[in-house]
Amino acid sequence: MHPRPLYVRGRPLADGRLPAVCAPLVARTHAALVAETRAVAAKQPDLLEWRVDFFGAIADLSQVVAAAKAVREAAGGIPILFTRRAQREGGQPIALDEGQVVVMYAAVIASGAIDLVDYEMDNDALQLARVRDLVHGAALPLVLSFHDFQSTPSTEQLIARFAQAHAQRADVAKVAVMPHSMEDVLRLLGATLEASERLPIPVISMAMGGLGAVSRVCGGAFGSALTFAVGAAASAPGQMPIEDVQAALAVLRRASSG
Known catalytic residue: 174? Predict the structure, then answer.
């Protein structure tokens, strides 16, 4: 397998090591978001994900753009992934329809404050095409994602999800699932390995919750380009503190290069 890291602004995250570490930003106010960004950036993740669906002023476009610029300034050069997670895939309820969400994406992309964009692969095809054109028009990578908070699909369905993202012209395919057994976790890791070998784009995967915690540490060995860890507050069940994830990854890397 040839590992495919995420590339941002022409450079591989984490110097190409798999997985890179991403920490979410979930503060609800502008001031809290700036403070959270500074605190999390100090822990040196490879990537920050601003989960704008947590932002209390999400319906005010000018406040969203101002916050994006403030996050950029507070991040100290760490790249930023911009995500509105849909409620049906584990996101917060927001007072915007999907057309307004796309307008928000356009404004934030135009601000130059972000480096990658996440959008769910199951969104309306027309809206997805609009977001893809916006992202690619700005020469940014598009992560197309799928989250199942109830279960872990079959191997065939998991591989089909990764392939769907590629077919929809994603630059990165992301799949997150909820396991109910270690067999589910094993299935997710196996599908990740197969997808990473089949597809010409990076893949990201994780099994959520306590059962899936192992996938957040060892996923890179199966081809997952990114793992998510807690800098200040979690954005999904099973995320571990960034210090623990970084330490565990360091142990694995030393062992595998020995």
Answer: yes
Tokens of 200: 């010409």
The C-alpha atoms of residue 239 and residue 125 are separated, in whole angstroms, by 31
CA–CA distance, 52 with 7 (Å, rounded to integer): 22
Residue 133: C-alpha distances to residues 48, 97, 148, 161, 162 (Å): 23, 19, 26, 21, 20
Provide the H-helix boundaries in the chain. 30-41, 61-74, 98-111, 125-137, 155-167, 182-198, 213-218, 242-256
| Measured CA distances, 208 to 67, 71, 135, 197, 205 (Å) | 29, 27, 28, 23, 10
Alpha-carbon separation of residue 245 from 198, 203, 225, 239 (angstroms): 27, 19, 14, 9
- Catalytic-role residue among 2, 43, 136, 174: 174
More confident residue, 257 or 123: 123
Taking the CA atoms of the chain, what radius of gyration do you get in angstroms?
Answer: 17
Q: What pTM does this model have? A: 0.95
Catalytic residue among 2, 69, 136, 147: 147
Percent of the chain with pLDDT over 90: 92
Q: What is the mean pLDDT of residues 153-170?
A: 98
pLDDT of 239 reads: 79
C-alpha separations of 91 from 54, 99, 237 in Å: 8, 17, 12
Angle of the 98-111 helix axis to the 125-137 helix axis, nearest 10 = 0
Query: Is 147 noted as a catalytic residue in this protein?
Result: yes
Q: How many CA atoms lie within 13 A of 179 on its CB side?
A: 24
Cβ neighbours around 27 below 10 Å, total: 23
